[in-house]
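QA checklist item 7 of 12: single-chain prediction sanity check.
[x] sequence parsed
[x] length recorded as 337
[x] structure emitted
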Amino acid sequence: MRRRGVTVLLGALLTALLSIGVLGAPVPYVVLGPGPTVDTLGQEDGKEVIQVTGRETSTSAGQLRLTTVGVQPNVKLRAAIQGWLSDDQAVVPRELVYPPGETREEVEQRNAEDFQVSQTSAETAALRELGYEVQVVVKTVAADGPAAGVLQPGDVVTSVDGEPVPLASRLTELIRSKPAGTALRIGYTRDGAARTGTITSREQDGRPRIGIEIEQQQPHPFTLSFDLKDIGGPSAGLMFALGIIDKLTPDDLTGGQIIAGTGTIDDTGQVGPIGGIPQKLVGAKEAGATAFLVPAANCAEAVRNRQPDLPLVKVGSLDEALTALETLRSGGEPTHC
């Protein structure tokens, strides 16, 4: 009996040791959890998140909080099991976050670049909302290109065949909407004077072109900058745009409430979908948010993962977000998911 008992004991000990080894083994997954939330109207590390120089800014009684997802990149089986059992975390295959052939550093660099682009688009969209229009300015004209002799560097392109050109991307769309060899009536200003010229597009690299390089400018008598580190991806665009507008207008967009949200934004103010809605909702709830702005395309997922007493407000554009905030301030019911 003694020998049999020792055998059972040794077997149990061996099994436990093997279990410990297995639980400590790395697995090809990452764990997603609620990340930090940041008030775009406030400060991080003692510095304003949105900084305005050359103009007075207003203050807000509430908050506009962007939301993030935390990623555990190196996961062992024990952490994966804990993530699977958690209501606040998600366990996903590693390649969904770190694609094969890309290092973790390369992915983080791309996320940092996307974050910078989101800030630029937020600035463009917000300033357009405030009346600061974009100018599509000619940088260079190819000496042997179709536009030679018509356009010059410094010209501001305003229309193509009568269609307005509010953004650089729209100019490209209008030129490509007609086959190469089409005579295009180009409206532009030079030294403040409106002019019109005809340019016949030419195929280059398989696409119609007119032989100019352009840049997008948005003149305004102040400067904007952002100071926020260790966050990546494009999903803060909407909350940055709202933060800019709140600071540059006398109205308090928050009405004293804590409003959280997420969503990409483009130069036209359109709000796009993002990932990590379940984790962002948890982060918003923990931050005390009283409403959450959800991109329209994410509404179904948000409803499946809703948090108690956290209304889900559906937004498809910057204008819709501003309307929703106005409705919340007045005590009304915005459009919910």
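[x] summary fact logged: The mean pLDDT is 89.
[ ] second reviewer sign-off
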